[in-house]
Amino acid sequence: MNRTAQRSAGILAALALGAGGLAPLALAAGANAESGSYFERTATYPVHQNHPEGAAAQTAAEISTVSADGQTLIYTDALSRQIGFVDISDAAKPVGLGTLPLHQLGSAQDEPTSVAAFGEYVMVVVNTSTSYSDPSGRVDVVRIADHTLVHSIALPGQPDSIALSADGAYAAIAIENERDEDAGDGGLPQAPAGSVAILDTIGESPADWSLREVPLAGGTRENPEALDELAQAGLDTPQDPEPEYVSINSRNQAAVSLQENNGIVLIDLPSGTITKAFSAGTVDLDGIDTDEDGKLDPAGSLLGVPREPDAIGWIQDRYLATANEGDWKGGSRGFTVFDSSTGEPVWDAGNSFEHLALSQGLFPESRAGKKGTEPEGLAIGEYQGTDYAFVASERGNFVAVYDMTDPRAPKYVQTLPTTNGPEGILPIPGRELLAVSSETDEAENGVRSALNLFSFGAAAPQFPQLSSDPADPVPFGALSGLSANPADASQLFAVSDNAYQPRIYTLEAGTPATVESSMEVTEASVELDLEGLAARADGGFWAAHEGESGAENLLVRIDAEGVVQEEIALPELAELGKHGLEGIAATGSGEKEEVVFAVQRELPGEDYVRLGKYLPATGEFSWYGYQLEAAADGAWNGLSEITALPDGSYAVIERDNQAGPDAAHKKIYQVRLPDAAAGEMPLVEKTLAADVLPALQETSGWTQEKLEGLAVADGEVYVVTDNDAVEDATGETVFAHLGAADEVFDLAGPEPSTEPSDEPSQQPGEQPSEEQSEAPVAEPTASPSQSPQRESGQPQAPTDAPQQSRPAEPEAGENLADTGANSFWLIPVGAVMALLGAAAAIKSSRARAK
């Protein structure tokens, strides 16, 4: 096994040994590491792979069901107006079985809203409405084995969800007749009212099945009137009920959520009568983030928020759990358990669901001013004798798992990260699997709709790998740089980019690693986009600010309290567009401090990216070239981090801009900076240290694009991904321990060369060779450069705006000799000296050969 292969194997071994997650808030009996009672992800299957058009297709896996044998998963795809079939007999390797376009069953405009497997068939609930005022629908009964239509049943309106009774006697369908959000103020009432359809599934074939309707309003279709049961229960706009979701218990009672009406209705299926209606009520919330202001700040509060439940599920035939997504008036950012016998809530999540998201880097701050995490999906499943609730955050891209042994006191077990927009949650207890279908599909952003499969029985949670305490969260996300703490080997620092207000975080290594605290970076002269962080031996930090253009990139010195002390502009980067500074490292102290930084992409006209060195004591800059690996078609490669190694060399992250199945290049290289002479730009040699792609794929999720942080702390190597603030990304933060630094890197130092090399110096455009003993040189540049303004000594809190340094430019009338222009006469002299030296070397070599 070669050295690189050994390192990759070591990374996987470290991950296998160190897999872990956040300790549950309160472990239930049976939910512990010894019993293997956790879920772990086995596969993430992008459903465009099951579409005839492949990656070009726009797809949306929304609601799913599974065949009686648990081998075939069927999902709705509203965007493509079809249903899909996937073989999940191997839960680690789902295989697409093709799709059934609804235009083959009816119209090209038909839209599937839900599915339910029943014996050899799957019932496909279809919205056939041509307008909001004239809603319609049907149920198509399709044979699973050959995808053929067996029978169709007309529905009395526009359907949403479907549920089957455990005894197979009934199917209940929520006829929503949803409102037109663009009509008037977008609210209720809007005729016609909704209802519940009951399909009696008794008979030798689907043709023998019969349909009944349970009206939820009186009056006429054009002028509905409120039923007494709904009006007396205090439902919002009871004359226009809009049933959303339905669940059936073992006593054949259907519970129906009326989201816009903020209510719940119970129906006895055998008789088709309403037995109870009650309001979902309101909740007061505090300790939540209510402002979309670029800050993760759970200091807000909301009073009297209507819960407005979406998904609903029975627990032990008596209790009901609701996911309170909210709609036109509310949304309580959590879930609630009701006692169906009284209609009263017996438990409410309060702010705890949102605190999970904040503490695990999954809070969608862009939705803070609306409905936050938006818990939409919910399902109840029994695994090894324990009831579990699964609650999906549509905007946070996760499913929280709770032990529901005592429905009055749910116990948090773990968090399952998913792809974007988890909608359908499907427990498959017979195979100890859980399927989550995520509907968001934005190919241009690297986000694809997918099926997420999880297996029950793991000894420990896979996620989170980095977290804070949910009871007292330190919110975090968009981590763009990582640094060791030179004063405490057990700690690291991380920094966030401009997705949020910039903050510096203190982390403790461990399984999982923990976010202990954070501090705001203040008093900068510009809106900072910090893409790298290095803790200084003298205290405080250096940070890399990526500007909108090359001239706006800055080295930023920050004191230990987060106050910006100095901003230093970089020479020679004026022509660079975006993709500027992406990493920074600092070594030494006092007069010997050196700051080394990385530029992500090439400057115009250069076929290498730049590494730079800045000496704070003198203001001197030096530049080095670094050649990237060739990128795959449609992708680009760039640098995203640099960190100092104990032997004086440096490690850089070189990665592509691809995520998911397209991610191919996430590597760490080791480099040594050669001496830089005036008029030269040496190209550094690089040695592959580690391929991080296996670590990013280890938990079978959506491979993260932005591997952006790398640090060596206490002799161990850590990396972290930037979750893009849960925007255009899954939001999952990977924090991986890659192993010991002396195993990942060659820290013995380069062996001195005893023989001169006859190989020519490497020129720009040539790929660097790991065997070359001398750094090749690229032409031309004017290095080192001088920064005209700097601060020396220990950082002090500024009383004025931070000083901003700019590269020196000749003033009018300045003697060109002072700028080095009159030194051009040295070039021919240098060339002659170089030729004489080369001739002497050749002569010496020949003499030794004799």
Structural overview:
This protein is mostly beta strands. It folds into three domains: 444 residues, YVTN repeat-like/Quinoprotein amine dehydrogenase (Methylamine Dehydrogenase, Chain H, 7 Propeller), CATH 2.130.10.10; 303 residues, 5 Propeller (Tachylectin-2, Chain A), CATH 2.115.10; 25 residues. The chain is built from six helices and 56 strands. Strands 33-37-36-35-34 form a five-stranded mixed beta sheet, with no helix packed on it. A five-stranded mixed beta sheet has the order 38-39-40-41-56, with no helix packed on it. Strands 42-43-44-45-55 form a five-stranded antiparallel beta sheet, with no helix packed on it. A hairpin with a 5-residue loop joins strand 2 and strand 3.
Helix content: under 10%
Q: What percent strand?
A: 35-45%
**CATH class identity of the largest domain:** Mainly Beta
CATH level-four homologous superfamily name of the largest domain: YVTN repeat-like/Quinoprotein amine dehydrogenase
**Anisotropy-based shape:** elongated
Overall radius of gyration: 31 Å
- Measured between the Cα atoms of the first and last residue, the distance is 40 Å
| DSSP, total strands | 56
pLDDT average, as an integer? Answer: 87
Question: Class by helix and strand content?
Answer: mainly beta
Total domain count: 3
- CATH fold assignment of the largest domain: Methylamine Dehydrogenase, Chain H
Strand order of the largest sheet: 33-37-36-35-34
Individual helix count? 6
Gross CATH architecture of the largest domain: 7 Propeller
